[in-house]
Design a protein that fits this description.
By secondary structure, the protein is of the alpha+beta class. The chain is built from two helices and 15 strands. It has helices at residues 2-26, 30-45, and strands at residues 50-60, 66-76, 84-91, 99-103, 111-116, 121-124, 152-162, 165-174, 183-189, 195-201, 207-214, 217-219, 223-225, 228-233, 239-249.
Length: 267
Amino acid sequence: MRIKGVFESRVVVGVLLLAFMAPAAWAESAEEKGLAIAQEGERRQDGFGDFRAEMKMVLRNRQGQESVRYIRLRSIEVPGDGDKSLSIFDEPADVKGTAMLTYTHKTEPDDQWLYLPALKRVKRIASRNKSGPYMGSEFAYEDISSQEVEKYTYKYLRDEACGDMSCFVIERDPVDKYSGYTRQIVWLDKTEYRPMKIEFYDRKNALLKTLTQSNYQKYLENHWRPGEMFMENHQTGKTTTIYWTNYQFRTGLTERDFRVANLKRAK
């Protein structure tokens, strides 16, 4: 009886210790929580198949002078890899016919090609040049690629109010050594996991740009897309606003529509 009593006491003590230790032992790290949030955001975006949309891009310099560009975009999901996208410039006349083709990859550097009708040739964008401005805008070439989870490491920072909503705030650090950023701070709303704001820090870890996304609309029952994207460069005073219209999903695009060989004839 004595042995049994001692054994039972030790069992009870062990259970109590486990109870007190469990929260610490099972706690999710900031890195794990940040990754989980990013993965959930990506999961909710998967499954759109393909889409077409139109963009009005407004570029403003520090003095407020504007130039406007009109672009058509096509995109398709690629199983097991990143998306493929094609942008075609329609206006103004000096950029008409310019086309940008992007193959986004999960773990390898993205492939990007730019067709310049004035030169009548296709130019490949080198990985080390992905931080350059996209067609004179405040968006870099790397900004217009699909943001695959594997492109970054993550850390959860905090929960924070963002407008009328509550947001997760996470830090993501680019894996690509040629990225123009050391880190990005991302606000995602806690209900739909939509990116509402992103701060971009340059290679000196100084705040470079802020992207704000708004006027979201829901398509295909669970796919949210912004109606407006506003990128502000804090170091130059320049801004670029993109207005999205005419989203169309599952239009029958195939990977044949995204061939490099067809870039010169993109319409």
